[in-house]
Amino acid sequence: VEVDHRQRHLIDRYLDVLIPLGVKDADRLPHLKTRADDDAVIEKILEQAKADVGTPLIGLFPGAGHPSRRWPLERFAELADFLARNDHVRILVFLGPEEHTFVQDIRRRFPPTTLILDKLAIPQVAAAQARLAVFVSNDTGPMHIASAVGTPVVLLLDKRAPQSYLPQGDRHQIIYSSAINDVTVEEVYTAARTVLTGNRSATLFAS
After folding, report:
1. The pTM is what?
2. Distance between CA 101 and CA 115 in Å, rounded?
3. Which whole number is the average pLDDT over 103-126?
4. Tens-digit pLDDT profile for residues 139-160
C-alpha cells in the first residue's frame, strides 16, 4: 500500500531523516526553552502592568497571514470580555508587525486591563507565552511557539487545512470550521475554559 506522506505529520517526516543514523523513538513533542534575558524582559513588562500577581494569563493572537484565516476582531473582544468578567483572568493580546492597525480597536473594544504586546522580538514572544494558562490563536506561526514552550493552545482552523502541521499533544483544543466566520464566541470560550478548568461541560458565563 502506497503511503501518502503528505498526510503524515511534519514531525514524523523530519524524524525519518534520523532513522539511518540509528536514532529511533525520539520525543515527538517540540520543546523550546526560553532564555533568561528574555524572561527578565517579560517579567518587567508584567510587573509594570501589575499582571504578575497570581491572576491566570490568557493570550490571544488575532492576526493571520490571510483574511480567510482571521477570526473577526470583535469576536476576540467579546471572548476577552467573557473571560475577564467570568473567569478572573488577565488578557494579553499578541500582535505582529502586520497587526499594528489593530491597536486602536483593541484599546476601544477589549477590557481596560488588556495588555497589548506588539513590540516583542520572537524569543520574547516565547518567554511571554510560557507564562500563559492558554493561548487562543488563528492558524498562524505564534501558536507553534506557544505549543513548543508547553502552553495549551485553542486553535481556530479551517477544516480544509492540512493535518500535517497541527500542534501535538493532548492539551490542545482545535476548533474546525468550514469558514472562520462560522466559529462562535461560545465555542471558543468553552474550549478555553476546558483548558483552564479541565471541565468539558464548561458553559458560557460560568461563574
Report:
1. 0.81
2. 16
3. 96
4. 888 999 999 999 999 999 877 7
DSSP alpha helices (H): ranges in 26-109? 36-48, 73-87, 103-109
Query: Buried b / exposed e across 121-149, counting CB within 10 Å, b at 16+?
Result: eebbbbbbbbbbbbbbbbbbebbbbbbbb
Spatial distance between the Cα atoms of 193 and 134, rounded to a whole number of angstroms? 9
Identify the residue whose cell numbers are 461541560: 201
- Nearest residue to 205 via CA among 1, 193, 56, 196: 193
Torsion over CA: 35, 40, 43, 44 (sign)? negative
Residue 145 Cα to chain centre, angstroms: 8
Domains and CATH numbers, the chain: 31-197 (3.40.50.2000)
Question: What are the backbone dihedrals phi and psi of residue 137, each rounded to the nearest 5 degrees, phi first?
Answer: -145, 150
